[in-house]
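Now read these lines:
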Amino acid sequence: MQADPATRIGVRHEGGVLNVALPGDLGEGRTVYETCRAWQMVPERLFRREDCGKYFSASTPKVEQYEFAVVRLPSLGAVGVFPEGSSESADSGVDPHHVAELFLAAADTIAHERSGFGLAFFVGQVMWLLLHRDGQVVFFSSQHVDVAADAVFFLAAHYQHFGLDRVECPVYVGGAVSVEGELHRKMSIYFDLIPLEGELHKAPPASNPSTELLLAYSAALRQDFIAA
């Protein structure tokens, strides 16, 4: 029987950084993922590194003064830009990645079964939302949500804007959310909620290291959420 990734992968999440200790079957050593909320996607043909700060000119809180890192997302024809919040990743000799890559890998796994869906992943009071329609990602961003109603409104507004039917297109939910909690209860009134972890566990074992890492991350967040 395949061991749960959460039992095989060491995860430590603090200060906007996800430190992952990988077992031998996924690679040796340690990987650093940036998990800060600030995130902008720019079409690759329009991206200019010198303009990174300008992409965040309307963000709150302001982040233009930060150093920025980028991750290229060829499947989307886009570049993800984010503040590089980890001095550890810069000093350790480990190439920093971004947690967004894990969400995109999860969506790619789910897309084989669905023509349209949402993926909502909660880290503290931040909801990462990815929308998939007709075989492609049409929206991917993060949003601070103070209360459950914020998450419901954000989801509903973007489902409507991108033409996703709330009945036909489920929302895969993961991260720090409890099925007994108010957030899950209010979202389930309007959306068909499916546990993300259960869907990803259907994938062939170790078929995608990023999927394994996201499962471990989600399990660690849920444990911290319950402990709190």
Summary: DSSP finds seven helices and twelve strands in the chain.
